[in-house]
Amino acid sequence: MGKEIAIVTGGGAGLGLAITRKLIQEDIQVIMIGRNEENLKAAASEFGELCNYKVFDLQNLKEIPALIEEINTEYGKIDILVNNAGINMKKPFIEVTDDDFASVVQTNLSSVFAISREVVKKMIEAGKGSIVNISSMAAQYGIPKVIAYSAAKTGIEGMTRAMATELSPLGIRTNCVAPGFIKTAMSAKALDADPERKNKVFSRTPMGKMGDPDDVAEAVYFFCSAGAKYVTGVIMPVDGGNSIGF
Fold it and tell me: Which NCBIfam families match (predicted)?
């Protein structure tokens, strides 16, 4: 059998890095896919032989089949796919251009579909596999100034359910983690610059604090693990209660 093989998109930074670290701790071989070779190289040297990477821009949909073919040939199989890569864009609704909207949807939704389709072809041959998509609070309730991101992440949740229904009979489970407000360099900077927003985040989060990237990584690993063998089509908020907070 050998080690399980996992692909983590956007695996070299932020939540993706925490997910990569967790899977490697569980003795899973991880191939990170990302655009920033510097981040990927740093992660690979930190994590050692269980960690490899491919530099690839997921907006390039036409090249995704060849990428997955290459990984499958190199490693012999793909057991786990974590669709974590995503971009965000904050702009007032009426200022978002068609190109802005298309770009966010292409990276956050179309590429998730395309890479999942190619990986699923390999998983069907093996008769097993686990896919974990990453959604957002923007799919749980309305957040202003992120219209394209909200549309894409809501699409991810619908796609998770549709994939689970169609693929579970073939041995492939599909689940989704919806992170709340997680402490990263990017989120800290954004909230510190906007005290009103920061206040709002904490006031509607029953646990009264932000999560750690590790909290998301633990949920992702659960979905990939044997402990979740009867779990499919689930959207799990990891948000300190934010999505149900008043």
Answer: PRK07231.1, PRK12826.1-2
